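Input chain follows. Return structure tokens only.
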Amino acid sequence: MRGRKRNLNMARDAQGVSREHERRQRLDYEARLARRALDLIGDGVGAAHAEDKLAGSSLGRLLLRGQADRRDPGGISQRQYNTGQRWSHIVYRHAALMGYRLQLRTPSFDMVGGGESCAAPPDDAQIAEVRNDFRLCYDAVMEVCRLHTLRAREATYGVCILNWPLSQLRRKDFGLIRLTLNAIGKALGKEERGR
């Protein structure tokens, strides 16, 4: 039985094994980095951060902008970034507890809550803690909205949870996001001091 003809144009190692797949993976990776670098330039972050993990999310890009220039009104501090990460964790825990299915739409995939969990159901103390944390955050967000506009809630949720591209934000949204993250951090800090 005859096999297919050997492709003579393939890159091969010393043993004659084709390494074309490795070359294609490297080219694909380099193309993705180039696209991310262009996106970062459009978002006001330097292209040198294309390989940085923070550049993969909108909240991380805001942190990179803040680290590059502390006076940039479109950036956030490390503390605000940590608050945004913690708030998104609280939102996801609350959604899982309540049985909601958060639907995230990203350019690469759709992520929908999974099926049945093998973990034991949460006890009453865990449920009370998650609900209390969510209530504190919700109250803080709505207080900012009461003083300013509902766009504060939309922009902060969009950046922290839905990973909106920064180009989708208005100039005033950056200030509203900082105010909202500060209010959430203050509310959670008071709760931790009270425990």
